[in-house]
Write a structure and sequence with these properties.
Strand 2 and strand 3 form a beta hairpin. The termini are far apart. By secondary structure, this protein is of the alpha+beta class. Strands 1-5-6-3-2-4 form a six-stranded antiparallel sheet, covered by helices on one side. The chain has one domain. It is built from two helices and six strands. Helices cover 22% and strands 33% of the residues.
Length: 129
Amino acid sequence: MNADNRTFDVNGQALIELKQCLNLVLLLRNSGAFKAYRIHDEYGLMLYEYVPSGRNDIIPFIGPQGYEATGQSVFDWLKSLKEEAFGKPGTHDGDNSRGWRAYTDMWGQIPSDHHAVIAIKPQWLWLGK
């Protein structure tokens, strides 16, 4: 059974973590590939299993991409971002490091776009002493 409200809220730093997160998204959705993406200022890079008709803001991949290729593409995008894209680092008794957050809302969607299956955005990770 494929539930309508599968939710994600995972953060990490490594490429392998991101790839495995995307692998889980595809497994739980009974899907083999991501087919398109969109970059949103607030929600980050959104991934799609199909391109909804009439949507010119969604960019199709050259062909369907599995979690390995998609993970690498998203990771490269994250590495290309300037520090400002991560927002203000948290203040705590430790250090901050660049990372990512892969998420959906409580309905298993991305705010403002119910066609996207997951969004990934830059996030500061906290490193303790």
